[in-house]
Write the structure tokens for this entry.
Amino acid sequence: MTHLRCLSLALVTVLAAACAVGPNYKRPGFETAAAYKEEAGWKPTEPSDILNHGPWWKIFGDETLDELEEKIDISNQNVKAAAAAVDQARALVSQARAGFFPTIGASVGRTRGATYAAPPLTTDNAGATVTWNLDIWGQTRRTLESDVASAQSSAAALALTRLTAQSVLATDYFELRAQDQLQRLLDDTVVAQEKSLKITESRYHYGVAAKADVVSAQAQLLSSQAQQVNAQIQRGILEHAIAVLIGQQPAAFSLKPTPMRTEVPTVPPGLPSTLLERRPDVAQAERKVAAASAQIGVAVSAYFPSLTLAGSDEYTGSPLGKLFTVPNRIWSVGPSLAGTLFDAGLRHAEVEQARAAYEASVDSYRQTVLSGLQQVEDQLVTLRVLEKQAVIEEEAVKASREAEVLTLNQYKAGTVPYSSVITAQTTTLSSEQTALTVLSDRLQASVALIEALGGGWNSSQLR
């Protein structure tokens, strides 16, 4: 009969445990457009599956960038902190899972006491206790469900932190290379203007040019030399930023100047609906919704009584050699049911709070999706327009260089004043700087588009 009762109790417990109060989670709906608005009329340069094969930054074909990006996971402090947060969240999952199992304790001790009428007496005791909080209403399961979703949210946050650091590094790197290119451009400009100054000085020496030509040439050269020196500031700042991103002290890090790439690889955006699975921030927000949904069940379970099975088996006696005998044994076993009869609306308020937190997380999730779609559209229109501008700027540079040569020859022939030469040289430098800026912006927009698309990440990587 004793075994039958235990079996019946276990069966009732299993059946009761099948009930879990609170809502079962369903992912919030979000209807996306059939295609991106700004993709029309724009053609990417890479195949559609480029982001699914290895690190995304390799599409730029820059070995130095490859080496720098590989150090992000190893040395970037923000990434390391996010990874530690994931470990912490997973430990909370293990803590919640432990709630499904009984707690077993053991104790052993010795006491010695006496009264005025009796000699000192030594008492030994040893025993074990078992406590099991049965998850009848699913509080433990909902807590575990919430903790698992929170851990997955932390994993998505780690992916987002990593992707952000990678994209910032790539952006800073291309900006630094643009500064290298600007430095070479200014160096060439200074050399050309030094030659122009010698021409004006020679013409002035022979009396075929005015002193104003020499002074104007000197002023223009000094202005370019000032830009030449000033360009070093931004490069230094970018180099320091890259050092910190890869976890190094700026004093111990440097990058040699190298030519800037002229090709701008781009990737297709795919369908807007796929963005829900490709962006880690969207996955992070969605997992927060799941965690908030489970917390409603945790709050609702407080309305129902809790059932605890407890048992103990203890031996108390003296001396230790005869402790474990039947006369010294005290045991107990049985269930206990506990519930709150009156709390002045506390549980109701906690349920309402959990529901409001869930609604807020849903709104935050949908806003994150909207922001992600906006970022993709922004980079698509940026790339599309900059590609057209790059073609125009390239023609402008060619025309301005030709105009500069013709104007200088005309000045040598004495048919135009030196002010025309200054104007032509200024126009050439401005055109070259604008073309360089457009190239840099295109590379940065390409990085930003890849980041907006999730960098090849997918929510299936969550665990």
Q: What stands out?
A: The beta strands are 103-115, 118-134, 306-317, 329-338. Residues 228 and 314 are 87 Å apart (CA to CA).
